[in-house]
Design brief:
mainly alpha, elongated, about 0% strand
Length: about 80
């Protein structure tokens, strides 16, 4: 009986901890906007890559550079940066 009560009470605590975990991320509207901008930049990079010729400047240099900016700078910035 004691073990049963311990399991019931610990299940309730873990539910509250997971709920608090999601509130501790601290994403603002600015974080979501920056994440959306990053996704749009990545989409533009893929569109540029798909519409250019195989050996053109657009698909070999420009599109991968735009994709790197989106994946390496904008998306991590939107996740890790905390606006005040």
């Amino acid at each position: 009986m004691i073990l049963y009560n311990h399991v019931i009470f610990s299940m309730g605590r873990s539910k509250n901890k997971s709920n608090n975990l999601f509130h501790s991320f601290g994403f603002d509207k600015k974080n979501y906007m920056l994440f959306g901008i990053g996704l749009l930049i990545i989409l533009v990079g893929y569109l540029l890559m798909s519409t250019g010729e195989t050996d053109s400047f657009q698909s070999v240099k420009l599109a991968p550079t735009i994709l790197l900016i989106g994946y390496i700078f904008i998306i991590p910035l939107s996740i890790f940066y905390r606006f005040k």
